[in-house]
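Saturday, quiet lab. Running sequence design on the structure tokens for the scaffold JK sent over.
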């Protein structure tokens, strides 16, 4: 028998198995706890709860480590492509040259949208937030692929996954085009996944669009950095939605909705807005004081993380990518200096040091995306585009787990106990 955790409760002792992963903290298997003790555990926010078993992504928050299928994010960002990482996440291994070519070809075969779906956009106000459009349009994909999707069939699941990865750039670019009143572009499968997205976003039918290789590389790297991040809020949302057997396109729409919030994917938009508000480095001390003030709701956006209690390794890559993009586009943005200075001041302030608050992936991404030409409202859309592969890989992993059950948390009830209905005229 392996290690056991002992629990004393209500005058009795119970043993629970301790399960070991390949790396990372052990977990206490409490699945029998309610049956044996009549008690639940209480962990709102899941700060101490492993919601599933997964072989996809590992994070060591104290050391600032992020691994996809064992490979460090820094190595993947430096040497691979988003398509390679997508293959890795979906299939478990980096592709061989032939496998990569086949994977890229397969994805390119699914980049177009059904023509009827394009009409869907017209229903949105033209000033609609593109994340609102993403939730709606990706959810609507479920109507196009419902009867044809048998989620118990691994091949159907893989086709749905390919469709989602392939269509997301087309959907995201169309959301942007709709907001600026330009015609939507069809995909050009001669281009790379990322080059195609850039063309559909910034190209116009009246002119040739030339993909700038440095920008394509930076964008691809940003996609790699966002591809997966273990059981974060939106991924857990996708898993929970999918646990009922729901249509995968609808599950991804649920993930997009969750990602939109400013505490999650919306932080990149909020971080750049914050940097704009701060403006020049001389204003930083005032905002640092506000961030520390318990009575002020202001927080340093792009700072802090539930899991990382060290520098987010994705932020390191982001920071070094800023200069590459500036050089390629021959632009500069004084907000980068403000961001560097803000980071330096915060990292030397006891409040941030003691609470282990470091820059996260969102701190520098907005500066890069803004230099490339994206409006702030598109930032979270790009996050959703890239995270789609993580969502579908996690969804696949969950459905193929023979022990998979519908996700159904319990609660600590603190409302009124049973009481009798009082007729309206007696209240
Ligand atoms: N600025 C100032 N104080 C902060 C910040 C911040 N950015 N983040 C956390 N704190 C303080 C917080 O007030 C709390 O203090 P105390 O213990 O005195 O009450 C302590 O640090 C712990 O914070 P928490 O909110 O309990 O921690 P959490 O794990 O629930 O929240 C977080 C993590 C990411 C939501 C939070 O750090 C935050 O709101 N950061 C800003 C938003 C942001 O950048 N989000 C992007 C996350 S990375 C991308 C993604 O996953 O989507």
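Result came back. Writing it out in full:
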């Amino acid at each position: 028998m392996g290690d056991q955790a002992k629990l004393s409760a209500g005058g009795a002792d119970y043993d629970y198995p301790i399960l070991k992963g390949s790396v990372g903290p052990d977990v206490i298997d409490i699945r029998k706890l309610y049956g044996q003790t009549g008690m639940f555990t209480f962990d709102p926010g899941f700060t101490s709860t492993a919601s599933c078993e997964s072989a996809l992504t590992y994070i060591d928050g104290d050391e600032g480590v992020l691994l996809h299928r064992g490979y460090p994010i820094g190595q993947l960002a430096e040497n691979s492509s988003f398509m390679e990482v997508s293959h890795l996440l979906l299939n478990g291994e980096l592709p061989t040259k032939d496998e990569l070519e086949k994977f890229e070809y397969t994805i390119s075969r699914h980049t177009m949208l059904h023509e009827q779906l394009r009409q869907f956009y017209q229903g949105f106000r033209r000033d609609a937030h593109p994340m609102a459009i993403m939730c709606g349009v990706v959810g609507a994909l479920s109507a196009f692929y419902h009867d044809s999707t048998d989620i118990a069939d691994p091949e159907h699941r893989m086709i749905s996954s390919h469709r989602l990865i392939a269509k997301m750039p087309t959907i995201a670019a169309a959301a942007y085009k709709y907001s600026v009143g330009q015609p939507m572009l069809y995909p050009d499968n001669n281009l790379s996944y990322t080059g195609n997205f850039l063309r559909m976003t910034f190209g116009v039918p009246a002119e040739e669009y030339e993909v700038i290789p440095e920008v394509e590389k930076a964008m691809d790297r940003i996609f790699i950095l966002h591809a997966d991040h273990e059981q974060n809020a939106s991924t857990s949302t996708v898993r929970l939605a999918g646990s009922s057997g729901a249509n995968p396109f609808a599950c991804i729409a649920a993930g997009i909705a969750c990602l939109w919030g400013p505490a999650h994917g919306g932080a990149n938009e909020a971080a750049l807005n914050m940097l704009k508000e701060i403006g020049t480095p001389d204003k930083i001390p005032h905002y640092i004081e506000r961030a520390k003030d318990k009575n002020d709701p202001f927080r340093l956006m792009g700072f802090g993380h539930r899991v990382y209690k060290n520098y987010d390794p994705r932020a390191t890559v982001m920071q070094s990518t800023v200069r590459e993009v500036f050089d390629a586009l021959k632009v500069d943005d004084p907000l980068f200096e403000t961001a560097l200075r803000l980071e330096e001041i915060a990292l030397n302030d006891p409040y941030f040091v003691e609470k282990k608050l470091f820059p996260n992936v969102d701190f520098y991404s907005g500066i890069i995306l803004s230099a490339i030409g994206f409006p702030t409202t598109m930032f979270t859309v790009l996050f959703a585009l890239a995270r789609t592969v993580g969502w579908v890989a996690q969804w696949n992993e969950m459905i193929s787990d023979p022990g998979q059950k519908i996700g159904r948390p319990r609660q600590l009830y603190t409302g009124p106990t049973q009481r009798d209905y009082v007729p309206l005229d007696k209240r």
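Notes for JK: Residues 65 and 389 are 20 Å apart (CA to CA). The two ends are 60 Å apart (CA to CA). Ask whether to fix the surface positions before the next round.
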